Amino acid sequence: MTTRLTIARPDDWHLHLRDGAMMEGVLPHTTAHFARAIIMPNLVPPVVTGDDAAAYRDRILAALPEGSDFRPLMTLYLTETTDPADVRKAAADGLISAVKLYPAGATTNSASGVRDFDRVRAVFEAMAEIGLPLCVHGEVTRPEIDIFDREAVFIDEVLDPIRRATPGLRVVMEHITTAEAAAYAAAGGDDLAATITVQHLMLDRNDMLVGGMRPHYYCLPILKRGTHRPKLVEAATSGSPQFFLGTDSAPHPQHRKEAECCAAGCFTAPVALSCLAAVFEEAGALDRLEGFTSQHGPEFYGLPVNPEKITLEKGDPIDIPATVETGAGPVAVFNPGRPLHWRVAP
Ligand code: NCD
Ligand code: ZN
Ligand code: ZN
After folding, report:
1. How far apart are the C-alpha atoms of 157 and 302, rounded to whole Å?
2. Which helix (H) or strand (E) holds 200?
3. CATH, range 4-344
4. CB proximity list for 31: less than 8 A, separation 6 or greater
5. Looking at residue 2, what is its pLDDT?
6. What is the pLDDT of residues 224-234, one digit of tens each?
7. 166 CB less than 6 Å from ligand 1?
8. Do the Cβ atoms of 198 and 178 come closer than 8 Å?
9. What is the rounded CA–CA span in Å between residue 242 and residue 190?
């Protein structure tokens, strides 16, 4: 039985750090394990221009724990007034690694997102030309579409038409949650990839809803019917370079989660690697964990694999803290509801 596993230092290809006191509180939980992360731009107000991204990057760098060489990979929040020239310049300056598409109203802080996808055509074309990836929150927002169907409908109605209209556009389907998304990504070729979160690999909607509603399991896209989860595990553990880790660790103050109208997002950063080792072990695929956490992401983004290593070791269950204290209040830590035996060796 494997009880120790040494892998290249992981990266997180979808991370919410927020800003200010919240960022200062959550950042060390990512830098403890991850070398780089794609930083989501859904601040209020959002990170829209190259100048916004440079300023946000500098705030992150200034908040890094002593001695950390963590590298934030910045993104721009696509709006209907985004200037393709600004995107080109930010990419050419090495300031950004991707542009993020939020359909307006689809998720947390997405009000400034895109309503009419034709209005961002010129940006997509510029991105295809320079090979800059588009990270996509893939859900439609039409009120008549059931929340559990919004991802699958988005693929047919929005994503596939965009990709057909823009040959060469490199796309990351963020935090996929359905069998349909896994199949679409797998069939997409070199220009298409998908990130998968920890919670979608471990939980389904029953975990969130049976025996009482668990707000800390509420995230978007919402946890789906149990038939989808095995398809996501299959994709993550397949060894296919098209699937890699994006934790979507999304901290909200505890009072915003335990509320009449609960905010969407799971704060998984502190336990993400312990959770993933459990998932991959259960699937008999521990030998493919490194691909998912440390190799496929850099390959897609055209970056080197991190030269440093980390070691995971199996032993007594780890202590999962109920909360992490931040200057913006306590944040509940994701707990999958079962003991986690793998830890990152100090
Ligand atoms: C994210 C957040 O809180 O910013 N929430 C979530 O449920 N995933 C937004 C997002 O990634 O869609
Ligand atoms: Zn999202
Ligand atoms: Zn997210």
Report:
1. 29
2. helix 198-202
3. 3.20.20.140
4. 64, 65, 68, 70
5. 81
6. 999 999 999 99
7. no
8. no
9. 8
Phi (first) and psi of residue 296, to 5 degrees: -70, -35
* Domain residue spans of the chain: 4-344
Q: Tokens 């994709």 belong to which residue?
A: 235
pLDDT at 1 (0 to 100) = 77
Question: Which residues face 194 on adjacent strands?
Answer: 173, 243
Q: Which of 135, 219, 247 has the most ligand 1 atoms within 8 A of CB, as the residue to mutate?
A: 219
Task: Specify the pLDDT at position 147.
Answer: 98
Predicted confidence at residue 334, as pLDDT, reads 99
Cβ(100)–Cβ(78) below 8 Å: yes
Cβ–Cβ under 8 Å, residues 56 and 80: no
CB of 38 within 6 A of ligand 1: the answer is no
User: Within 10 Å of residue 62's Cβ, how many Cβ atoms?
Assistant: 9
Six-digit token pair at 30?
Answer: 């990512």
**Residue labelled with tokens 């509940």:** 332
Report the atom number in ligand 1 closest to the C-alpha of 16: 4
248 is catalytic: yes
**What residues pair up with 99 in beta bridges, in sequence order?**
76, 134
CA 29 – CA 71 distance, rounded (Å): 14
Separation between Cα atoms, residue 241 and residue 282, nearest integer Å: 21
Separation of alpha carbons 34 and 309, rounded Å? 10
Can you give the pLDDT at residue 36? 99
**Parallel/antiparallel/unpaired status of strands 342-344 and 71-77:** unpaired
User: What is the C-alpha radius of gyration for the chain, rounded to an integer number of angstroms?
Assistant: 19
Spell out, as residue ranges, where the chain has pLDDT lower than 50: none
SS3 content of the chain, % helix, strand, coil (to 5): 40, 15, 45
